[in-house]
Amino acid sequence: MIKHSVCHLTNVHHLLDQRIFYKEAQSLAAAGYDVTILGPGVASLSGDHAGVRVVTISPPTSVVGRLMNLPRLFRAALHTDARLIHFHDPELLLVGLALRMMGRKVVYDCHENFPQTAYVRRWVPALLRRPLAMVIDTLERTVARLLSGVLGVVDEQGSRFDRCPFVAIKNFPRLEWFSPNGHGPSSDLAVCELLHIGSLSHDRGSQFLLDVMSELGKTHPDVKLRTVGAFHTEADRVAFEQRAAELGIRDRIDCCTEKVPYDELGMLIRRHRIGLIPGQVSVKNLSPFIPTKLFEYLACGLPVVASSLPSIRGFYAEGDWGVLADPSRPCEHAAAIRHLLDDEHEALAKGRRGRSLVERRFNWSIEAERLIDFYKQVS
């Protein structure tokens, strides 16, 4: 029986985004909601996907085009007759407010601390970062008070939205797709010892990874690293390629920049021995956040070598699933990798402990129940 109709609205994210489509929308559809995802995308995406209706409008070709899309998204959302509108971008705050004034229930899904991101976005001039952060913070807080509720991705966001219903829905993995022995065909990619998933930039440790691989090559010259994810910028890609060539390790690194569908990512992860999280000290990496890749590695039974950053240390306290190392010392990361490669028994034990931890506490089934309970609260 259909409970209620809901429309997920975005102007930025891919319509088959991990959080929006594979987690939230599919879980709501399975719970009996009539779910639509509406946003810019190619026309071929329109239609039914796993019980979720996808509706596209023309993708913008510029920043001006994105702004011009806002009234189009407003009108299209009204035409869905959805009882609840769930939007995902801060640029849609005023659209969400207008929809609330039209009598709809409206929820804002705040995927990250957007005022803080103003300080780290390279395209924002240094003199404008503080004023922009203040504008975003004020707009988010003011509009949120007038909406039906706000979703975040970490509990700490609740302090910014203390005058409206709030719940943190974490981006933990779906266990049916992330497991040591999951169903489905194996990845076409060959087995590789080391894996890094996610986008690559200096803050995420792209250059640091190369130093780790160079250090590791002194004792394990045949060990290979696979990276799965795009570079943040073309400059990041060029710097990575140049540094790898300088170190003479280009043939030991396989860069896969094509997007992997979320429901196939677990199959790829399982074909590796150790997951890496080489994040560097930065404003963003020192803030509270959920290192999604950590739980995807653990769900697939991989031990993890990670930089000892505050958010990761908090989860390490929950279980001995790998090794934490100084984010400024590639030799420490290389030593940890050597140890896990050479001691297969300990590596497997750490992988099992990580999998058990995800099964008990850090998986999407738990978060899906929280999401559905929140919908009941605000409907």
Could you explain the architecture of this structure?
The protein is an alpha/beta fold. It is 41% helix and 17% strand. The protein contains 13 helices and 14 strands. Strands 3-4-2-1-5-6-7-8 form an eight-stranded mixed sheet, with helices on both faces. A six-stranded parallel sheet has the order 11-10-9-12-13-14, sandwiched between helices. α1 (18-30) crosses α13, α2 runs parallel beside α3 and α6 packs across α11 (330-342). The two termini are 17 Å apart. The mean pLDDT is 91.
Question: In summary, what is this structure?
Answer:
By secondary structure, the protein is α/β, with parallel strands linked by helices.
Mean pLDDT: 91
Number of domains: 2
In CATH terms, what is the fold-level topology of the largest domain? Answer: Rossmann fold
The shape, in one word, is globular
Radius of gyration: 21 Å
**Tally of contiguous helical segments:** 13
The second-level CATH architecture of the largest domain is: 3-Layer(aba) Sandwich
Number of strands: 14
What fraction strand? 15-25%
Q: Which strand order do you get reading across the main beta sheet?
A: 3-4-2-1-5-6-7-8
Helix content class? 40-55%
- The CATH superfamily label of the largest domain reads Glycogen Phosphorylase B
What is the terminal-to-terminal distance? Answer: 17 Å
Q: What structural class do you assign from the helix and strand content?
A: alpha/beta
Which short descriptors sum up this protein?
379 residues, alpha/beta, Rossmann fold, 2 domains, 8-stranded mixed β-sheet, 6-stranded parallel β-sheet, 14 strands, 17% strand, globular
